[in-house]
Design brief:
alpha+beta, three-stranded antiparallel sheet, 164 residues
Length: 164
C-alpha cells in the first residue's frame, strides 16, 4: 500500500492522510537576479491539518488494488490507523521521507533535497570589443584581382554560350 501511496503522490503532488494531515509538493520557480538565475526550489511539506482524500484518489487506489472504491476507502482508513498507531517512532515512505513521532507529535523529515538536482546559474559580463586585425595593402589589392578574374571568366562563359 505504501508504494501505491508514493506513486499517487509523485503523480499528483498531494497525499491526504485523513485526520493525520496532508503531504504536499511545493514548487518555487527559478527567478532572475543581478548575477544570474536562482535555481528552482522543490520540497515536500507536511501540514498537520485533517484533510479528506478526493474521489480521484479513491479511484486510483481502487484501480491499483483491483477492488471497489468503497473497499479502497475502508482499507485506506484501516491502513492509516495501523500505520500511525503510535507504536513506531519512525514511519518511512522510502523515496519521499520519514514520519517521526516526537512526544506524540507527528513530524515529517524530507528525503528530497532539490539542491542536489538544481543549481544556481551565474552570468559573467560579456564585452562587445571586437579585435580588428591589421590588414596589409597587399591583402586589399588581392580582392580587386580576384573580382577581375571572376568577371573575365563569367564574360567568357556568356560568350561561349551565346556563340555555341
Amino acid at each position: 500500500m505504501k508504494a501505491i501511496l508514493e506513486q499517487y503522490f509523485i503523480e499528483n503532488g498531494q497525499l491526504d492522510l485523513l485526520s493525520w494531515g496532508c503531504l504536499k509538493w511545493q514548487k518555487k520557480q527559478a527567478s532572475f537576479n543581478d548575477k544570474g538565475i536562482d535555481a528552482p526550489m522543490e520540497s515536500i511539506l507536511f501540514e498537520p491539518i485533517a484533510s479528506v482524500p478526493s474521489k480521484h484518489f479513491y479511484i486510483f487506489l481502487a484501480d491499483s488494488l483491483g477492488i471497489s472504491t468503497e473497499q479502497a476507502a475502508i482499507q485506506y482508513e484501516h491502513f492509516l490507523q495501523s500505520l500511525f498507531d503510535g507504536h513506531q517512532e519512525q514511519i518511512p515512505l522510502e523515496s519521499l521521507g520519514t514520519f517521526i513521532f516526537n512526544n506524540g507529535i507527528l513530524n515529517w523529515q524530507n528525503h528530497f533535497v532539490s539542491s542536489d538536482f538544481y543549481t544556481d546559474v551565474f552570468f559573467d559580463k560579456v564585452t562587445n570589443n571586437v579585435i580588428l586585425e591589421d590588414t596589409s595593402e597587399e591583402d586589399k589589392d588581392n580582392w580587386v584581382l580576384m573580382a577581375s578574374i571572376i568577371a573575365i571568366l563569367s564574360l567568357l562563359a556568356i560568350l561561349f554560350k551565346f556563340y555555341h
